[in-house]
Design goal:
The chain has two helices and three strands; from the N terminus they run H-E-H-E-E. It has 90 residues and is an alpha+beta fold.
Length: 90
């Protein structure tokens, strides 16, 4: 299999960005850290439980990653349909 050129990689990246952008009119973003001995799968499950419990009507698209500077995992999320929500009570 041939390696992709920089131009092909950039085109693919833009296609993914366009696809994510087309999923929902994203209006907010969220980052969170799960400290401790969480696996990436546990971090995903915890975030999804949080969303079901506290923000069940909010659309979201997220990724998790190992925390690069200390133990734990990060969650990065785009959120839509957030009209009328206030951060502090959440």
């Amino acid at each position: 299999m041939r390696e992709q050129t920089a131009e092909q990689k950039e085109r693919m990246k833009q296609q993914i960005v366009d696809w994510v952008h087309g999923l929902c009119p994203w209006s907010e973003w969220f980052t969170g850290t799960f400290e401790g001995e969480f696996s990436e799968n546990s971090a995903r499950k915890a975030f999804e439980r949080f969303m079901r419990k506290h923000l069940p009507r909010v659309s979201y698209f997220y990724v998790t990653e190992r925390n690069p500077s200390r133990e734990g995992h990060h969650v990065h999320a785009l959120m839509g349909t957030c009209t009328g929500l206030q951060r502090k009570p959440i």
